[in-house]
Amino acid sequence: MRFLLENNILIPEPLSDKSDAKRITDIESSYPQPLNPTFEYSTELQHLLYGKQLLLDEIPFSLENIHQHYLNGYLQYRRCISKTKDGYSCVRCGNADQKLFASFGCARCKQDCAYCRKCINMGRMSECSVLVSWTGPSPIFEIPEKPLVWEGTLSPGQQRASSELIKAVQTDDQLLIWAVCGAGKTEILFEGIGTALQTGKKVCLATPRTDVVIELAPRIKSAFPEIDVIALYGGSEDRNKTAPITLATTHQLLRFYKAFDMIIIDEVDAFPYSVEPMLQYAVNQAKKDISSTIYLTATPNQTWKKEIQAGKRKAVTIPARYHRHALPVPEFIWCGNWEKILKKKRLPGNVMAWVKNHLEIGKQAFLFVPRITYLENIVKILQTLDARIEGVHAEDPDRKDKVARYRSGEIPILVTTTILERGVTVPNIDVAVLGAEDKIFTESALVQISGRVGRSAKYPTGEILFFHYGRTREMIKAKKHIENMNKEAIQHGFID
Ligand SMILES: [Zn+2]
Ligand SMILES: [Zn+2]
C-alpha cells in the first residue's frame, strides 16, 4: 500500500485522487490520530485486531471501513520494513541480517520492493505492506470473582513457587521458575493466572511445541471453566479470536503486539527459543510495556544459572517432585567401544543383558542413542530378542503412532534419539542411554532424559543408566545437577 499525507493524516492511495503517494516505509511517522470517543467502532474488528499486528491482507474488512477506524484513532498503520543506516530491518521478526532480505519488481508499489525472507511464511513483510494494530479500547471480558475452580492441593515446593509467582504478577516483575522434571509445573501457574485474571489482566502461555499447546488447552480450560481460552499454533482455528487466556506456540507470538499483561514462557531453554533471537524479539513485542514475564525451565542454561547465583535474576526453584520422592540419580556403566561392536552387528554385553532383563520382567524402557544412523542397526539387533521393539526419531513419519503404542504397552522397549527427551511421560519405566559420552548428550539433555523416570506417584522410582565409553564433564554435571536438587529438597523438607 502507498499513502498520501494530508494535514498529518495518512490516506491510502486507493481512497485518494492525488498522485504523489509514498510507500509506508518511506514515510517518517505513522501519524496516529486522536481517539474520537463517540465513534461507533466495530467490535468484530476490535476482537480481531486487539493486541495483534496483522497485515492489511489478513483483515477481512473493506479498506474504507478500516480507514474510518484509523481516522477516529482506533487503529494504527505501521510500516513492516524499517530502513536504517545499516540497511533493512523487519518490524515483525526483528531480522536485520541483510542476507535475509530480497527484493522484487513490485506490482503494488511499482518499485523495487524489499521484503523479509525470515518470516515470509507468516505473510510477506515488504516496503509497501502495512501492519495494522488496534489502538482503541480493549475488549471487556466478564471475569467471575473466582475464575479458578481447581481443587487440587499444591506440594510445599509448588506452593512456594506459586506464592512467588503471584508476587511477580502483582508487581509486574520477571521470575524464573526452575522446576525439576515432574514437579507439576502447570498446577504452579494456576493461582498466578487466577490473580492476573481477577485484575483484568490478559495472560499468554507460550511454549515452543505445538503438542504442548494442544495438551495444555483442556487442562487450563477445566481449571478456568468460565474463561475463554484460545489455542494458537500453525493451522489453529482460533487465530482470529481474542480471549483473556491465550495459549500459543512461540512462533505465533509474531502476530501479537503489546497484547499481554502476563506472559509465561514454557521450556525457555528448549530449541528453538534459546537459539533463535527472533522468538525472543517476538516475546518482547507481544507483551505490554508494563507486564510480568515468567520463565519456566527444568534445565536453565549456564548464563542463567550464573545470574541466579549472583542474585541478578529473580528465581525460585522447585527441587522436588510433587509426589515427595527423590529424583532418580543416574548410574554410569562403562560399555567399551560400542561403535566398533555395533559395526559387527552386535551390542555390548551389559547393554544386551539390560534389555533382556527388561523383556523378562516385563518392565518397559527407553533406550536413548546419539544418532539416527545408529538407531536402525540397534533396533535390528534388538528385534532378534523381541520383534515388538521399535525405534523412533525426529523424521520418522510413524512417530506419533509409535509413541502411542508404547504408551499403551504394546511396544516393550523404545529406542529413541533425543527427540523424546522432553514431554513424553509414561509411568513405571526404566531408561538407559547408550553412548552417553556423545556430544549431543549435554548436561541439560541428560537431566531431561533422567527426568523421564519415576514421574508418577504410583511408580515414583526407577533406573537411569548411562552406558558410556569414557565419562564426560557433561555426564558428571548432569549427575551433580540431580544430586544438588535432591539435597536442596531434603533441606526444605520437600521429600520424605
Ligand atoms: Zn511493493
Ligand atoms: Zn521478518
From TrEMBL:
PROSITE patterns in the cross-refs: HELICASE_ATP_BIND_1 (PS51192), HELICASE_CTER (PS51194)
The organism's superkingdom is given as Bacteria
Q: Which UniProt keywords apply?
A: ATP-binding, DNA-binding, Helicase, Hydrolase, Nucleotide-binding
Q: Where is the Helicase ATP-binding domain?
A: 166-318
Q: Which SUPFAM superfamilies has this protein been placed in? A: P-loop containing nucleoside triphosphate hydrolases
> Which Pfam families does the annotation name?
Helicase_C, ResIII
Q: Name one GO biological process term.
A: DNA replication initiation
KW Metal-binding (keyword) present: no
Start and end of every Helicase C-terminal domain? Answer: 354-496
The GO molecular function terms of this record are: 3'-5' DNA helicase activity; ATP binding; DNA binding; hydrolase activity
PANTHER family named among the record's database cross-references: COMF OPERON PROTEIN 1, PRIMOSOMAL PROTEIN N
The name this protein carries in UniProt is DEAD/DEAH box helicase
